[in-house]
Design brief:
single chain, 352 residues, alpha/beta, Quinone Oxidoreductase, Chain A, domain 1, Rossmann fold
């Protein structure tokens, strides 16, 4: 089969691979909609370490083509929503009741890109299909469902880590697709004031549609001082969905004593965090710093699909560029890598 990924670090291209086969609990999926992600381009450039001969991609809607003998909930021909995180549900950390992003080791549940080939292929493998696949509900557009598998799940996880509450003032730093979903999730959680940090006009527009009340731009000066001027002090929670290693210190500088800083930003292996001690109250401020990868599994995706089904949110607004056909994976990936100013999220739609 053919797939698109990284021939080696820094060199993307088409690959020829053996078609995967399912274990007793697994399924083989043919993609019908795909979305490149900055995590794919980050991996291609070596941000998570050297890799080669790896098919990329982890955001997909697909059709089941083959199942293992013990799969009960799915059969060939079913249209399915594929979470980007597909845990081994027997994993130690999951049995201990910890985050499902980590089954047997850190980010162990993120099988695509790390443990096996991804979704940019004619066929791809999903482990433990009954627990890791969700049926595509009738009446929900493929575009909207596609945004649940990572963007919505990750953005909402940032909100969950921040424990956003009714009436709170929250800052969201970075309003790319994940940040925009964090804005939407923050509004759904009942926050009062939602301050976003971003500059791209199309992202600002959608952020306001999703509930942002104020916009701060680094082009207008120090973002910490701007937030302090807006609020007359500090904020309850800060969500980091963009920026660089220096953004963490900025976030801590904005949040109140006893507040929470939540980060779902994917940093580079070479990054180092520097936090001046006074910013963190000399270590005495009881400010929580939380960072993590979104949970996995079918139940989470089914809940996100319910939010769409009942009109609470339309995540398809994230898709700014559409491509038709399997061969267009390359064009969409390279566009995601270049990140032109009008891009939020590209998507590829495939008819076989």
């Amino acid at each position: 089969m053919r797939g698109y990924g990284m021939i080696k670090t820094g060199q993307p291209g088409w690959l020829e691979k053996e078609k995967p086969t399912p274990g007793p609990l697994d399924a083989i999926i043919r993609p019908i909609a795909l979305a490149p992600c900055s995590s794919d381009t980050h991996t291609m450039h070596g941000g998570s370490g050297p890799k080669e001969n790896l098919i990329l991609g982890h955001e997909a809607i697909g059709e089941v083509v083959e199942t293992g003998d013990l799969v009960c909930k799915f059969k060939p021909g079913d249209k399915v929503v594929v979470p980007c995180v597909t845990p081994d549900w027997t994993g130690r950390y999951i049995q201990e009741g910890r985050y499902t992003a980590h089954d047997n080791h850190m980010m162990g549940s993120f099988k695509f890109l790390i443990a096996k080939d991804g979704t940019f292929a004619e066929f791809f493998h999903v482990n433990m299909a009954d627990a890791n696949l969700a049926h595509l509900p009738p009446g929900i557009a493929i575009e909207s469902a596609l945004m649940t598998v990572d963007m919505m799940s990750t953005g909402f996880h940032a909100v969950e880590l921040a424990e956003v509450g009714y009436g709170e003032t929250v800052v969201v730093i970075g309003i790319g697709p994940v940040g925009l979903m964090a804005v939407a999730g923050t509004q759904l959680k009942g926050a009062g004031r939602i301050i976003v940090v971003g500059t791209r006009p199309n992202c600002v527009k959608i952020a306001k549609e999703y509930g942002a009340t104020d916009v701060v731009s680094y082009k207008d000066g120090d973002i910490v001082q701007q937030v302090k001027d807006l609020t007359g002090g500090s904020v309850d929670k800060v969500i980091i969905a963009g920026g660089n290693a220096n953004t963490l210190a900025q976030a801590i500088s904005m949040v109140k004593t006893t507040g929470i800083v939540s980060s779902v930003n994917y940093y580079d292996a070479a990054d180092t965090f520097t936090i001046p001690a006074p910013v963190w109250g000399l270590g005495m401020a009881n400010i929580d710093i939380r960072g993590g990868f979104c949970p996995g599994g079918a139940v989470r995706i089914e809940k996100l699909l319910n939010i769409i089904k009942y009109g609470r949110l339309d995540p398809s607004k994230l898709i700014t560029h559409r491509f038709d056909g399997f061969e267009k994976i390359e064009d969409a990936f390279l566009l995601m890598d270049k990140k032109p100013a009008d891009l939020i999220k590209p998507a590829i739609f495939i008819k076989w």
